[in-house]
Write a structure and sequence with these properties.
heterodimer, A: Aldehyde Oxidoreductase, domain 3, Aldehyde Oxidoreductase, domain 4, 3 domains, B: Uridine Diphospho-n-acetylenolpyruvylglucosamine Reductase, domain 2, Uridine Diphospho-n-acetylenolpyruvylglucosamine Reductase, domain 3
Chain lengths: 788, 265
C-alpha cells in the first residue's frame, strides 16, 4: 500500500471546493437569456381537470408561455416510464398507467403539475400562475395503501383494477405451508414500514437549453445517472435523439435515491426551452420537494416465522402491500420485489420462504428507491421476527441468531440470491464485545435507579449491493444492463484523468477512485482527476445507486488500468529494448526483469505520445483505455448493529445511549470515507425509526409537508457511534469490494425498534417511535396487564 | 413573496403613524414568523414597518425588583444576559430553548408576544411571571394580554415597546419540544412570588397559553412536586394534532409541571 493508495484514510479531494463555497451546483449555472419556470400543481389529491384557462396568465408581465398537458400531448411528448417489468403470479404484466409530465385530464396527487408558466423572472411566473384558472371536479381520494384494493375504493387508473399494479410472489408456498404445519413455535407480526421523504440538502433543479444551430438540447440536472436520464428522455419521452441531447449533472448535493429518477420537471424544462427559444430554469423549493420528490418505503406487512423445537427457523411467510403512489416512478416496481423479497433470508439458513407483494396505486406522490431500497424493509421483517421469536421462546437473541446463521459459502437461499462470502459469527462476536453485551444487565439496573427503562436491540443485516449482473437483472425484468464503464486517459506528462459512468453526490469518488489509480500506477493522488456527470465527456454509464460505485464502478477502472498497464509495458519494452514479457511494472517503474534497466512512469507516458521509440504502424501511439465491467454476482455486505436505548416512561422519550456497528464491506478503499457513510446511513435509519414519517390525511393532503412537521434527525439524536469492521473480501470483483453506502440505513431502523420494544416490554410499536407512540404503547401494555 | 414597501421609522411614534396610515401594513420585528409566511405567499402585506432602526426598543435593565426588557431584544440577548441570569434565571433558560440559533439571533421578545403563537415559549414566561406588556399606549397585565390563538389585546396600531417582569422567589420552565419545529409541544412555566403561585402551560391548550389553577391551589399548600402527584388536567380543551393527541398533551402537563416545580427548588 502506498500512502495514498487502497486502505489509506486520505482526506477528500473534493472537500476543498465544497467547504470553501466553490462547489458548482445546477442552480449555480446561469445561461445567457435564461428564463424561469414555475409549476402550478394540483392542490387536490384526485380531481378531473375539466378546463384550464390560461389567457389571463399569458397576458401578465414578463410571461413567455403558459403550457398545459394539452400542448404537451399536441407536441407528442411521451410519458415517463418505469423501467423494470414485473410479472404477476398469474403471468400478467404489471399495469403501468400513463404518466404525462403535465397532468392531462386528471390530477392524481397533490403536487401533480397541471400547468407551467415560463417568465422572465420567477416572481413574474408565480404571479401569472395565480391567474391560471383550473376547473377541477373533485373525485374521492385514496391515500391509504391498505385500503387501495378494497371494494368501493376510488379507482385511480383505468388500467389497474382495484388499484393493483401487480401481485408478485417469490419462493415455494407449498414447502412453507408444510414447514408451518410442523412448526414448534410460530412468531407473527403485523407492521408498517413508514413512508419517508428523502430531503437531500440540495433540492432538485433543471435547466433546459435548445441550440437551434445544432438542433441539440442540453440539460443541467440534479441527477445521479445522467446517461440513464438521457436514454429515457430520448428513447421514451422523445425530446431529442440521444446524440442531440446532452445531460450534465454538475455537483449534486445528496440524492439518497431520490435523484435517480426521471421527473416531469426536467422533461418540461427541455420541452419549454425549445418552445420559447430560451434556456429555462427550474429549482424546487423545499415545500415542492416534499410534494414531488419520490418518497421511500411505505409497506404494510404481515409476516410469520416458523421455528422447530431447537429454535431453528424452518420457514418464513411474508405478505406485503407496497404503495407506489399515483404513478410508477422509474425503478419503483423493482424496490418491493427483487430488492426486497430476495433478501428475506437475511443471514440465516431458512429452508423455505414464500413472499407475496401486491403493489398498489394511491393518490400520493410516487414512491421509489430511497437509501437501502427494499433491503431496509426486508431487514426489518427478518430481524423483527428473529428478535421477537427469541423473546417469545425465551432464548437470548444473540444465541438464536448464532443458531440460525449461514456458515458455509457459497450459500443458495430459497429466494434467488447466492451469497458468495461472509462471516456472520465474526461480526456478531465483535459487536457483542464492543457493545459490552455482558454488562447490559448492570447498565439496565443503573438506568432503573434513575427511573429509566433500558433496552438493547440487534440487527444482523444483509444487503445485496454492487448492482448488478446485467443478464441476471435482465432475466428478472430490468430494462437496462447494470454494468459500469471507465476510461483512463494518461496524459503525455503522466497525469491521469479517469472518466467514470458513476456519479458522485456525497460519496467521495473523486478521492477513492483516484486512490485506486494512485496505488496501481504509483503516482501521487494529486496527479489523478476523476471526471463524471456529463454525457458529452463520459463514454456511457449507469450512474450511482445501490452501493454500486465501488464494486462495479471501480472494477471498471481496474479493468481499464489492466489495459493501460499492458499497453505501457509495450511502450516500455521498446524504450528499454527488451522483450515485452520481461517488463515488470511496480511502484511506478518499468524494469527489465533481472536488470537495473528501468523507465519511470512519466517517461513511458511521454514516449507513448511522442512515439519516437516505436513504429506507429506496429504499436498505436497514445495511452488511453476504456473498459466496461459487468459484475458476476451481487455483493453481500453484512454485519451486526447493536443499539442501546433509555426510555423515559413518563414522557415516552427514547434516547439512544450507545451504538455499535460492525460491518463487513470486504476491501475498503478509504476507511474514513466508509466510516462517514456508515454514520450517515445510521442517522437516516434512526430518523426512520424515531422521527420521520410522511403522513397523508384521508383526503390525500400531505400533512407533513415541511420541516416544521416532518422531523429529520439532528446530531444530538445520536450518540458517539462505535464503528468497527470485519473483512471477508467479495470474490465477485477484482478488488473484493462489497459496498457501504446503504448499510447504515438498512441496519439501523430495526435495531432501534428492537431496543425500544425490549425496554418497554411490548412489541406493539410502530415507526416512527415518537415519544407519543412509545407512551401510548406503554399505556396499552399497562391496560392489558390490568385487564389480565 | 409579493412585492411590498419597507419603511424604516426612527421612532415609535413614526412607526405607529405608519401602521395607522398604511393599509395592509405589518410590523417587522425579528421576522421569523412573518417572512417565511410571506415567502410562501400566505401573507402579502403591502407595507412592512421595520422596527430595527427604532430607538430605545432594545436593552435589558433591572430596576428595584423589576426586570425590563425592550421589545426588540433578541432571544440570544436574553439568554446570555448576566442581569437576566442573576435575577430571573428561568427566563434566560427559556430564551435559550427557543427554536434554533438562527431564530434566537433574529427573533425578539416583543415579536413573539405580539404574535402569541399557541406553541411559543415567551407567552408562558410572560403569563407565568405575571409580566406587564408595555406598549406605546398603555400597560397591559399579561393576564389580560393573551386572548386566544394568535390573538392579543393589542389594538391595530399598538406597538409593544417593553416587557416588565417582576422578580420572583422561584421559577422554572420545562419544555417538551416538538422534535421537528422545536416549538413547545407542551411547556410548563411555574413561579412563586411570596404567596402568588403561577402554573402556566403553552403548546397544549386549544386556545393558547393558560394557567392551571388546580395546580396553583395545590402548590399553595406546599410548593413541592409531591403536591401535584395524582393531579391531572382534563384532555378536554387540549390541542390535538399529528404530534400529540389531547390525551398525551394533558398527560405531559402533569409530568412537566412536577418537573418544573422540582427544578424551581
Amino acid at each position: 500500500m502506498n500512502a495514498t493508495g487502497i486502505g489509506a484514510a486520505v482526506r477528500r479531494k473534493e472537500d476543498q471546493r465544497f467547504v470553501t463555497g466553490k462547489g458548482h451546483y445546477t442552480d449555480d449555472v446561469n445561461r445567457p437569456g435564461q428564463c424561469h419556470a414555475y409549476f402550478l400543481r394540483s392542490p387536490h389529491a384526485h380531481a378531473r381537470i375539466k378546463r384550464i384557462e390560461t389567457k389571463a396568465a399569458a397576458a401578465m408581465p414578463g410571461v413567455l408561455a403558459v403550457l398545459t398537458g394539452v400542448e404537451l400531448a399536441a407536441d407528442k411528448i411521451g410519458n415517463l416510464i418505469c423501467g423494470w417489468m414485473i410479472t404477476s403470479k398469474d403471468g400478467s404484466q404489471m399495469k403501468m398507467a400513463a404518466h404525462p409530465a403535465i397532468a392531462h385530464g386528471k390530477a392524481n396527487y397533490v403536487g401533480d403539475p397541471v400547468a407551467v408558466v415560463v417568465a422572465e423572472t420567477l416572481a413574474q411566473a408565480k404571479d401569472a400562475a395565480e391567474k391560471v384558472n383550473v376547473d377541477y371536479e373533485l373525485l374521492p381520494a385514496l391515500a391509504d395503501p391498505a385500503k387501495a384494493q378494497s371494494e368501493g375504493a376510488p379507482q385511480i387508473h383505468e388500467i389497474a383494477a382495484r388499484n393493483t399494479i401487480y401481485q408478485w410472489h417469490l419462493g415455494e408456498a407449498k414447502a412453507v405451508e408444510v414447514a408451518f404445519n410442523s412448526a414448534k413455535h410460530v412468531t407473527k407480526l403485523d407492521f408498517i414500514n413508514n413512508r419517508l421523504v428523502p430531503n437531500a440538502i440540495e433540492p432538485r433543479a433543471a435547466i433546459g437549453e435548445y441550440d437551434s444551430g445544432s438542433e441539440s438540447l442540453t440539460l443541467w440536472n440534479t441527477t445521479q445517472n445522467p446517461h440513464v436520464a438521457r436514454l429515457v428522455m430520448s428513447a421514451f419521452v422523445g425530446l431529442a435523439p440521444e446524440h442531440k441531447l446532452r445531460v450534465i449533472a454538475p455537483d449534486v448535493g445528496g440524492g439518497f435515491g431520490s435523484k435517480i429518477f426521471i421527473y416531469p420537471e426536467e422533461v418540461v424544462c427541455l420541452w419549454a426551452a425549445r418552445k420559447v427559444g430560451r434556456p429555462v430554469k427550474w429549482v424546487a423549493e423545499r415545500s415542492e420537494a416534499f410534494l414531488t420528490d419520490a418518497h421511500g418505503r411505505d409497506h404494510v406487512t404481515h409476516a410469520e416465522m416458523a421455528f422447530d423445537a431447537e429454535g431453528k427457523a424452518t420457514a418464513l411467510r411474508v405478505k406485503t402491500i407496497a404503495n407506489l403512489g399515483a404513478y410508477m416512478s422509474t425503478f419503483s416496481s423493482s424496490v418491493p420485489t427483487y430488492l426486497y423479497g430476495t433478501l428475506l433470508s437475511g443471514q440465516y439458513e431458512i429452508p423455505a420462504i414464500y413472499c407475496e407483494v401486491d403493489a398498489v396505486y394511491t393518490n400520493t406522490v410516487p414512491v421509489d428507491a430511497y437509501r437501502g431500497a427494499g433491503r431496509p424493509e426486508a431487514t426489518f421483517v427478518v430481524e423483527r421476527l428473529i428478535e421477537v421469536g427469541a423473546r417469545e421462546m425465551g432464548i437470548d437473541p444473540a444465541d438464536l441468531r448464532k443458531k440460525n446463521f449461514i456458515k458455509n459459502f457459497p450459500h443458495q437461499t430459497p429466494v434467488i440470491m447466492t451469497y458468495d462470502a461472509g462471516d456472520y459469527h465474526a461480526s456478531l462476536k465483535k459487536a457483542l464485545e464492543v457493545a459490552d453485551y455482558g454488562g447490559f444487565g448492570k447498565r439496565k439496573r443503573e438506568s432503573a435507579r434513575h427511573d429509566k427503562l433500558r433496552g438493547i436491540g440487534f440487527s444482523t443485516y444483509i444487503e445485496a449491493c454492487g448492482i448488478a449482473p446485467s443478464q441476471a437483472v435482465g432475466s428478472l425484468g430490468c430494462g437496462v444492463g447494470l454494468w459500469e464503464s471507465a476510461e483512463v486517459r494518461v496524459n503525455p506528462t503522466g497525469t491521469v484523468e479517469v472518466l467514470t459512468g458513476c456519479h458522485q453526490h456525497g460519496q467521495g469518488h473523486e478521492t477513492t477512485f483516484a486512490q485506486v489509480v494512485s496505488e496501481r500506477l504509483g503516482i501521487p493522488l494529486e496527479n489523478v482527476s476523476v471526471l463524471h456527470g456529463d454525457t458529452d465527456k463520459v463514454q456511457f454509464g449507469m450512474g450511482t445507486y445501490g452501493s454500486r460505485s465501488g464494486a462495479v464502478g471501480i472494477s471498471a477502472i481496474v479493468k481499464a488500468l489492466d489495459k493501460i498497464e499492458a499497453k505501457a509495458k509495450k511502450v516500455a519494452a521498446h524504450m528499454l529494448e527488451a522483450a515485452e514479457g520481461d517488463i515488470v511494472f511496480a511502484d511506478g517503474k518499468f524494469t527489465v526483469a533481472g536488470t537495473d534497466k528501468s523507465s519511470a512512469w512519466g517517461e513511458v507516458a511521454l514516449n507513448a505520445y511522442t512515439a519516437h521509440k516505436f513504429a506507429g504502424q506496429e504499436l498505436e501511439p497514445g495511452l488511453k483505455e476504456g473498459a466496461f465491467y459487468d459484475p458476476t454476482n451481487f455483493t453481500f455486505p453484512a454485519g451486526c448493529h447493536i443499539c442501546e436505548v433509555e426510555v423515559d416512561p413518563q414522557t415516552g422519550e427514547s434516547e439512544i445511549v450507545a451504538w455499535t456497528a460492525v460491518d463487513d464491506f470486504g476491501t475498503v478503499i478509504n476507511p474514513m470515507i466508509v466510516e462517514g457513510q456508515v454514520h450517515g446511513g445510521i442517522a437516516q435509519g434512526v430518523g426512520q425509526a424515531l422521527l420521520e414519517g410522511a403522513v397523508y390525511d384521508k383526503d390525500g393532503q400531505l400533512v407533513t409537508g415541511s420541516l416544521m412537521d416532518y422531523c429529520m434527525p439532528r446530531a444530538h439524536d445520536l450518540p458517539a457511534l462505535k464503528v468497527e469492521m470485519t473483512r471477508t473480501p467479495s470474490p465477485s470483483n477484482p478488488l473484493g469490494i462489497k459496498g457501504c453506502g446503504e448499510a447504515g440505513a438498512i441496519a439501523a431502523p430495526v435495531a432501534v425498534i428492537n431496543a425500544i420494544t425490549d425496554a418497554i416490554g411490548s412489541e406493539d410499536l410502530a415507526m416512527p417511535a415518537t415519544a407519543q407512540a412509545v407512551w401510548q404503547a406503554l399505556q396499552k401494555a399497562q391496560d392489558r396487564r390490568k385487564a389480565a | 413573496m409579493y412585492a411590498f414597501t419597507q419603511h424604516r421609522p426612527a421612532t415609535v411614534r413614526q412607526a405607529a403613524s405608519l401602521l395607522a396610515k398604511q393599509e395592509e401594513a405589518k410590523l417587522l420585528a425579528g421576522g421569523h414568523t412573518l417572512i417565511p409566511t410571506m415567502k410562501l405567499r400566505l401573507a402579502g402585506p403591502k407595507h412592512l414597518v421595520d422596527l430595527s432602526k427604532v430607538e430605545g426598543l432594545s436593552g435589558i435593565e433591572m430596576k428595584g425588583r423589576s426586570l425590563t426588557i425592550g421589545a426588540m431584544t433578541t432571544h440570544v440577548e436574553v439568554q446570555t444576559s448576566p442581569v437576566v441570569r442573576e435575577n430571573i434565571p428561568a427566563l434566560a433558560e427559556l430564551a435559550g430553548k427557543i427554536g434554533d440559533p438562527a431564530v434566537r439571533h433574529r427573533g425578539t421578545i416583543g415579536g413573539s408576544l405580539a404574535n402569541n403563537d399557541p406553541n411559543a415559549d415567551y407567552p408562558a414566561a410572560a403569563l407565568g411571571l405575571g409580566a406587564t406588556i408595555i406598549t406605546n399606549k398603555r400597560r397591559i397585565p399579561a393576564d389580560e394580554f393573551f386572548k386566544g390563538l394568535f390573538e392579543t389585546a393589542l389594538e391595530p396600531d399598538e406597538i409593544v415597546t417593553k416587557v416588565q417582569f417582576p422578580k420572583v422567589n422561584k421559577a422554572a420552565y420545562v419544555k417538551f419540544p416538538n422534535p421537528a419545529s422545536r416549538y413547545a409541544l407542551v411547556g410548563v412555566f411555574v413561579s412563586k412570588r411570596s404567596s402568588e403561585i403561577r402554573v402556566v402551560v403553552t403548546g397544549a391548550g386549544a386556545n393558547g397559553v393558560f394557567r392551571v389553577t388546580a395546580f396553583e391551589e395545590a402548590l399553595k399548600k406546599r410548593f413541592g412536586a409531591k403536591s401535584l402527584e395524582g393531579l391531572t388536567v382534563p384532555a378536554d380543551g387540549m390541542a390535538s394534532d399529528i404530534h400529540g393527541s389531547a390525551e398525551y398533551r394533558a398527560h405531559l402537563i402533569g409530568v412537566l409541571a412536577r418537573r418544573a416545580v422540582a427544578a424551581a427548588g
